[in-house]
Amino acid sequence: MEVFLRGVPATLAEQNLKDALAPYLNILGIADWIVDKPKRKPMAWVTFLHATDGTEFLERHGQQRAPPDQNQLSSTTPRFPGVGGRYIPRLRLLSTPIYAEKSRREVNALAINHLSHERDERQKKPDRGQRAPDISCDIFQISCGKIVFGQSRELRYIQQTQSHTGGGYAKFGPQSVTVRQDGIARMDIPIHTIQELVFDHKSQSIMFILEDPPKFFAQQTNHDGDGGKWERQTSFPLWTDHAKYVAHCLVYQLTLAGDYFSITRAVRRQDILTISHHSIPSTSSPTPTVEDYSTGMSVLEGKMQSVGDMRHGFLPFPILFQVQTLVWNNYLHPYGGLCVLESIERTAKDPAWKSTTPPFTADAMKRVLQKIPYPIPGTDPSEVDPKVFIDNVMKTEADLRSQNLARSGVYGPSLPVHQTWVFKAMVTPTRIFLQGPDAEARNRVLRMFPHHGDHFLRVSFCDEDGQGLLFNPKVSNDPVFERFRDVLLKGIRIAGRQFSFLGFSHSSLRSHSTWFLAPFLALDGQRQSRDTILAALGDFRDIRVPAKCAARIGQAFSETPFAVDLFKTGISVRYIPDVKSADGKRVFSDGVGTISWNAVEEFWKVLPKKAFGSTCFQIRWAGAKGLLVLDSRLRGKVICVRKESMMKFPSQDLQELGICDVGSRPFRLVLNRQVIKILEDRGTSEKWFMGLQNKALDLLRAVTATALNTSTFLQYQDVGGAIGLTSFIKQLDKLKIDYRRDAFLKSVVEHVVLRELRLLKYRARIPVPMGVTLFGVMDETGFLDKDEVYITFDETRGKSGERLDATLADGPVIVTRSPALHPGDIQVPRMVTPPASHPLRELRNCIAFSQKGSRDLPSQLSGGDLDGDLYNVIWDPQGRPPTTFEPADYTRVVPPSLDRPVTRRDIANFFIDFMKSDILGLIAIRHQILADVLLEGTNDDDCIKLAEMHSTAVDYSKTGIAVDWRDMPRAPRSRPDFLAPAPPVHVYDLGQISHIMDDDNEDDKDDMGSSKPRYHRSEKILGRLYRGIDEKKIWSEDIHRTIPTDGPSVWEQLMGLIQAEFNARRIITHYDLYHEQARKIRTLYEDSISDSMWHFSENPRKSISEAEVFCGSILNRQGIQSRQQREASIRLKEETDRVMTWIVKLIHEGIKKKDEAVMYRDYESNGESNDESDESDESDESSRAEYDALQLAWACLVVNKSVLVVVAVRHSGYTLRFQSWSDHPPIVNGACPDHGSALLQIVLCMLLSDGTVFLQRQ
Asked: Which long-range contacts link 220-226 to residues 24+ away (Cβ below 8 Å)?
């Protein structure tokens, strides 16, 4: 039922109206109702789930007809225009009479659906009582500063600036603490950023010690009925000198004006924050340099300039970068940084060190500074003492060098040729964070100057938490974007070097990051700047569109880890024409060239072993970009480039060809919401979707039930493949040892299962066994006819050994490409297999499209091309839609050109404009909402329009033509339930997942005109799939199983069995001979994992967990992985596999060479030996190697007192079998008489870190 309200104040916001109505409905016991109030209108509607509730409300508060004989009312009788004296109001809100009556309009079905959905969700949750109200208190002063230790080693608060906040107040909510002043200035402090809350009874103040700066807002003066629009600020409005200190002074003190003790008691009862009671001495007149922040920073920067000067300086930039990191990242006060710098300077000048490398490296400094805590009450002063810091750096470096004599230079570790050290900066609304140097893949520009990598800086622009700025139509981010623009145009000064904007790749533009450059003198004596570097790359003068010019320059910044020297290898280049339609309007060969067999073999030589056999290579060369695909008909060493579609700008940089990616394996295909919705609208049966999801759910439910299920799942997910984790779990099971009794092993498995469960429920990422994702190429031979494709892929996927479905046969197949929003983005061509001797049969892991017809098929699939795009192929006949839909054919819009060459300022402005106008996600969400509620779904005109807008937004990065969010079709007030966010998870420090937390259903009233979205129950397939997964039930009943852990641990049991094996085989261990190597290996592992824990963290002050590194997947504790986290997880997985493979080799072969320990990045992440022995099993050398490996493995296990980690490593051809040795004679000289070729099997056990790692050598 719906009630209509007249006389509502036009300027009253909907949320405020809801708050005003709540007491009247609460007293009636009515819980299920919502309000709909148009902006700037004196009316509103209240919708009730139950008609009886609406009737009861009207009986109590509905308008009444005036008595018939009352023709004239007194002047005090409330009236409403149009109502006259006919009715008397019985409801007053905010001193205003409100006329309530039954609405004459039809009740909104989505509103009723929403109320029903909210009721059902509320009933599912346990009743925890009513949430305590937010706590508000008046304040009359706010200050900010830093906490430091004085000369007496006493904790002191150095107040840098203060503001008297007459009429100000603070509000303590469940998510944040909000400080308001004069109704227009606002500061939000997220709860999770508060390190500690300090109550000071003496000064009657509350001190906030923060990890990150707060968020600041100013309210604009307009009054449009929605509470006014807010504007994000870079410092606290009305606080004149706050901008000088906001970046680095993260201690805020609020002096209360009200009842101090009642407020502090109420805050403590909330039980949300870490609270302590201390009276910290403070000073409001800091001593210059020593205490005062601004003067200390000035002195530090001047010192940096002098010791880092290119002509007269003597301290290398990587060291100075770490010193600046100490200060900018708030590890130390500027004076502390100055003390560190002076100490390093004295050490570097010491004659004793002139003949050797100084006793500190960037690597050692990174390791030590990551351990510096925030100063809070109880902190040991030595933990933030500059002298102790230097001592720890020198000790750390000495320890690292004792384990690895090859460490040298200012960085410490060595790097393989395809990697370089990358320095990074994060620019947020208030500050600049520094990170690195980190080892990352090279690009063309970095490869040009291998000895000057420290003159390049990768700069990302983000919010304080490392995520992108959120779009909110109620909040303007213009001041923040202007700050970003200022940084782009003026540059960043770090350690005496001025870094200026250089350029960005297409992918980095999407992630809002770019490259900066500090000019330098190259080895040939030439001064290198932005202009000289761009001139060496190519000629961009004729490109007059800033977006397009930026995209062309960005080709040189695409990651190309591997490169081929065309001159040295003798590979020649030919230019060939594009293949077009008869009318010349369509290009079938858009972005794809060819390569001969002999040239392919040269490519294989520079690529990792796992890429051997690849026939598709995504490349960057000179001004060309695209895909090179094998054409076995070519002779000699040759590549063929198509000038029109592959050459983007003229260039003389012809020698080196960079390789971005290769088609080395097929990718697993998973559905997504867009594809599912299009297929549903085109007639695919919902039984197919439900069947696929149920199969995936059954697998996840059963993962932790048995060891076989666990090992199969981990193999499928490729977790621990480089170290034989799956085999180890199965071996434990044969020994009647339950791996789940170990907390780390259990958490690793649960981490991966939860990730997949959440992708399934909240992203509809449903695996399709009869499907695969591949590079798209063109049939160069002309064999395929119109609407025909040829699909080829390896039936075993990569190192995981997963067997793919091999039922693909000639006939109709579904082909699509992500993102797919238009119903015509899914097409059904026909698969055709060429004869056995045909050149197409030489290809691997790709889908070949025909070059015949009036239009190429890739362009029909979301506007795809062949320069490296991936295409999804499904051959399951049950998923095939019975209807067809014409593909989209959008008119190409010609972007406006400048009448002059594009400048750096033009490109910088485009970068900012892109950040402001990047609304791809907003369009996609609006499309999903409308597709769910509209009768025609994705076929509706509104969805078709959104698909076109999405296509325009995708091309924005190349055309500069933005999409205005105001042009999008309007969406209903509620969203389908499948768009609800995932609830957060509670995680222990070591990465163990405790439980899935309840989502807070309370309205998040932030006083900025926004509230939590409404959700309705979707009756379409996506809603059914979403509700078909009870995440909490599956987690608690099927995954997070309670396992008794009494008695001996997993490792104690296994050690006992290993020791029994040694005794049975009469093997005597010699720990004393191997313990030093074992200690070094353990330290190398710890260092490598720790480096990844920090490298892949979004917050430079917080690391990810070891479990996340081990699994190669970053866990988003607040919900589903973000795009940045997904991309980082891919790189993390590759790095983890490399580290594990390297550790396997070290244990198996020992640390033989002085440089072996540092070059782990050179090892393949495929779990295979790089130098397998061909000697016979009976060889003395092989037996000795096996014996040494066994001894070293045992030493690795006992090198620490606690037994936490077991590493199972199989030597070539050796397999462990724990059997009843009373039935089998002991091994003599490495051979077992009863088993012939069956040789001694080993288990290598070692303690590596606080978690469990298994290494297996195949």
From this structure: 220/476, 221/184, 223/11, 224/11, 224/39, 224/40, 225/10, 225/11, 225/12, 225/13, 225/39, 225/40, 225/41, 226/13, 226/14, 226/39, 226/474, 226/1009
Cα–Cα distance for residue pair 518/457, rounded to 1 Å: 8
Q: Please give the Cα distance from 375 to 373 (Å, whole number).
A: 6
The pairing of beta strand 33-36 with beta strand 155-172: unpaired
Task: Kindly give, in sequence order, each residue whose CB lies less than 8 Å from that of residue 248, ignoring residues fewer than 6 positions away.
Answer: 146, 293, 297, 327, 328, 330, 431
The answer to whether 1148 and 1211 are in contact (CB under 8 A) is yes
Calpha distance 712→707 (Å, rounded) = 8
How many percent of the chain have pLDDT more than 70? 86
- Report how far residue 347's alpha carbon sits from residue 353's, in angstroms, rounded to the nearest whole number: 8
Q: By three-state DSSP, how is residue 1137 classified? A: helix
Tell me how crowded residue 88 is: count the other CB atoms within 10 A of its CB: 18
| Separation between Cα atoms, residue 1204 and residue 1055, nearest integer Å | 11
**Mean pLDDT value of segment 509-514:** 92
> Comparing C-alpha atoms, which of 329, 338, 241 is closest to residue 288?
338
CB-based burial, 180-195: b 16+ in 10 Å, e otherwise: bbeebbbbbbbeebbb
CA angle (144 as vertex; 139, 146 as ends), nearest 5? 140
Residue 610 burial by Cβ neighbours in a 10 Å radius (0-12, 13-18, 19+): middle
26 Cβ neighbours under 8 A, 6+ residues apart: none
**pLDDT tens column, 68-85:** 765 454 444 554 544 556
Q: In this structure, what are the phi and psi dihedrals at residue 262, rounded to the nearest 5 degrees?
A: -70, -35
- d(Cα 254, Cα 1173) in Å, to the nearest integer? 70
- Beta strand 811-812 pairing with 667-670: unpaired
Identify the CA nearest to 455 among candidates 533, 409, 517, 526: 517
Q: Which two tokens stand for residue 615?
A: 């026939």
Which helix H or strand E contains 1057, and what residues bound it?
helix 1050-1064
Comparing 1178 with 1055, the larger pLDDT belongs to: 1055
Residue 1169 in tokens: 């030996």
CA distances from 49 to 57, 178, 675 (A): 13, 34, 34
Partner residues linked to 489 by β-bridges: none
Residue ranges in 461-504 assigned as alpha helix (H): 478-490
Contact 824, 886 (CB under 8 A): yes
pTM value is 0.86
Task: Retrieve residue 285's tokens.
Answer: 């007149």
Residue 130 has pLDDT above 60, yes or no: no
Q: Give, to the nearest 10 degrees, the angle between helix 51-61 and helix 14-26.
A: 90
Residue 55 Cα distances to 31, 48, 49, 102, angstroms: 14, 9, 11, 9
Q: Are the C-beta atoms of 774 and 868 separated by less than 8 Å?
A: no
Least reliable range by pLDDT among 145-159, 423-437, 441-455, 500-514: 145-159
For residue 788, give the H/E element and its range: strand 788-792
Residues 1193, 1195, 1196, 1197: what is their CA dihedral angle, to the nearest 10 degrees? 90
Beta bridge partner(s), residue 618 = 627, 661
Distance CA 713, CA 1111 (A): 13
Distance CA 756, CA 696 (A): 9
State the chain's mean pLDDT as an integer.
84
